[in-house]
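User: Can you help me understand a structure? I only have the sequence.
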Amino acid sequence: GLVGSEMCIRDRLYRYLLPNWKEVKSVYLAGLTIAGWMWSGKTILSRKIARTIEEHMEEEGKSFLYVEGRRQRDVINYFEENKDEVKVDYLFLTYDDAGRFYLSRESTKKEVREEIKDWLEIRHIFEEYGFKGILCTCFNIQRFELLDKTIRNSPVVLFKSLISHDPKDLKLLSRMLGRRRFKFLRAVTSLMYFGTLSRDPEVLEVFHELKIDPRSLDRNSVKRFAVGLFADGSRKIIDFGSGVEKPRNFVSVEVQEDDNDFSSIDYESKKAVLFYCSVVSQHVGLKERELMKLLRSVGLKFRTKTLSNVWSKAGEKLKEVHLEF
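Assistant: Let's start by predicting it. Here is the structure, written out as tokens:
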């Protein structure tokens, strides 16, 4: 059908985000993209979806954690320092205002490339932390096409508004959404930003199917709607219902602007510094875990696996040097 009723745990979106637990063998990855202009309710929607999942997890007797940040590097650093936090059954990661760090036009920049590489390895990163369960990543972006292509083509995309004056954009979105959904989203956008209610018969027919009187809606309450695109080819207008409540198990991770952050240098330079530290440490009898603790105590940030790999190579190099002498 064209529309979906007010979202409940049995609907397509939640069937995707909450698979059968028998299918969860290690890290089960789910991906979600929410696109819409500023003030269209993207952050509220990601929290609302997470809260619905959290309630279901509570009913199942399972644990849940919602983490909201801007950049994956900061989220990973948070879990490096708080590894007990991954001992949950469901981890929902939201990258809000993703355009700041994941713009498609900046994908050739070193920092953006590193962020995307980390995202491509996210399952393996959390496997290293000992996580076993469902891991959902949600990216909120103002314009769908601005998000890096690797990330934006997630199994589920939710459109919250339709604002564009570019004929090419409008043509693309019309093809993606379908004519009636396109017209409906434009009508929602008009009411949201201009307070203007559409009188288009097709739009009014959709509201009738949703069993909602459009005259009862205002600039805020109309934010309950989104158009969902699913990887199986289906497309639906979704009513997420009224009410705003963020997850109870909620963590906010701030962007860490740190000159000592290893992520600000390229990967090879990072490994070179860690290699030198590893050689010196092994020469004086310092253990790997002690070096890791020492480097992080002065604010240096890096992945545990990166240091472990470099540590092993440093040990091999030291053996070669000893054999030569």
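Now, to help you interpret it: Strands lie at 3-4, 27-35, 64-69, 90-95, 133-141, 156-159, 225-230, 235-239, 250-252. The chain is about 45% helix and 15% strand. Let me know which part you'd like to focus on.
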